[in-house]
Structures are given as C-alpha cells and as structure tokens.
Design a protein that fits this description.
The protein has two helices and no strands. By secondary structure, the protein is mainly α.
C-alpha cells in the first residue's frame, strides 16, 4: 500500500513539471511568432513618418550649419577689423620712427650747445663760490673798519712828561687877539648810519 501512495505522490509532481514546461513552451512560441512576424504599420503611415523624419533631420542640419556659418562670418569680420587696427598701428609706428629719427638728428645738432651750457654752468658755479668768498671777506673787512672807527673815537688820556730839569718860566708876552677866528679841528662823525 505504501508503494501505491508513493506512486500517487510522484504523479502529481510530474504533472506539475509538465504543466510548467507547457507554459514556458507557449511563451517561447508566442515570442517566436511575434519576432518572426512583426505587426507592420500601414505603408502610407510609414512613408509619412519617414518623410517627416527626413524633413526634421534636414532642418536640424540646416540650423547647425547656419550657426556655424554665422560664427565663421563673425570671425571674418573680427579678422578684418583687427587687420585694419594693426594697419593703423603700423602707420603710427612708422610715423613715430621717422619722428624719432628727426629728433635724434636735432639732438646731435644741439649737442655742442649742450656742452657749452654745461661749461657755462660750471663757470657760474665757480663764480658763485668766488662771490660768496668776496662777500665773506667784505663783511670781515667792514667789521674791522667799524672796530677801527670806534677806537678812533675813544678819548685818549694825555700823559704828562715828568720834568727832569727845572722848567724855566717863559717870558710872558702880551697876547694879541687874532684877526681871524681859530678853526676848530673837524670832529669825526660818530653816527654809524652814515658810514
């Protein structure tokens, strides 16, 4: 009996495997049928879609090419403007080189005058030093003259000689009045402003 039960238990297991195999076979058949025979759209729809695709692709390519052409046109304009600017700068540089050549010639012409001016400047500097020395000497000399004038104005104390022999009395003679007034000696000017 037990053997019979075991056989019965084995039968449903085999049927389950068979059912699974049948399901997988149906899926694979269905997939193979779909791949082998795809559902094709109608011929008119296919032509319309293809035409629309080509139109849009051509519009896209035209747009890309037009932006590229615009970039190249912009580069051409920039190059033209740059060329004109460099041409102007070249002309200015040529003019400056000619002007510098003229200035160099003029400088060479004036070079002897510059040397004379430098020599004159040295002479003037030496003359200024000489004038300064003369000025200092004049100030010292003026100070010495002022000192001499002051010493000349100081009163001198007379010194009396001491008699070694008896002094004889002079004979008095009558004093005559002079007919002309006696001139007094000139007094030195003590005002420093007039000096």
């Amino acid at each position: 009996m037990s053997d019979t039960n075991n056989n019965n238990n084995n039968i449903p297991a085999n049927t389950n495997n068979t059912n699974n195999n049948n399901v997988s076979d149906t899926f694979s058949q269905k997939a193979a049928n779909d791949i082998a025979t795809p559902v094709l759209p109608v011929q008119e729809d296919l032509q319309k879609s293809t035409k629309e695709m080509f139109t849009k692709v051509s519009d896209y390519i035209k747009g890309e090419l037009s932006t590229t052409v615009a970039d190249y046109n912009l580069l051409i304009q920039m190059n033209n403007i740059t060329t004109s600017k460099y041409q102007d700068m070249t002309n200015i540089t040529k003019g400056l080189s000619v002007y510098m050549g003229d200035l160099k010639l003029k400088y060479e012409e004036f070079q002897p005058y510059f040397e004379k001016i430098n020599e004159l400047d040295k002479n003037v500097t030496e003359l200024e030093k000489t004038v300064q020395l003369l000025d200092e000497y004049t100030k010292r000399l003026e100070q010495k003259v002022k000192n001499i004038d002051k010493s000349a104005l100081l009163p001198v104390k007379p010194t009396q000689p001491q008699p070694t022999q008896p002094v004889q009395q002079p004979v008095q003679q009558p004093v005559q009045q002079p007919t002309q007034p006696v001139q007094q000696p000139a007094q030195p000017n003590t005002n420093p402003e007039t000096n």
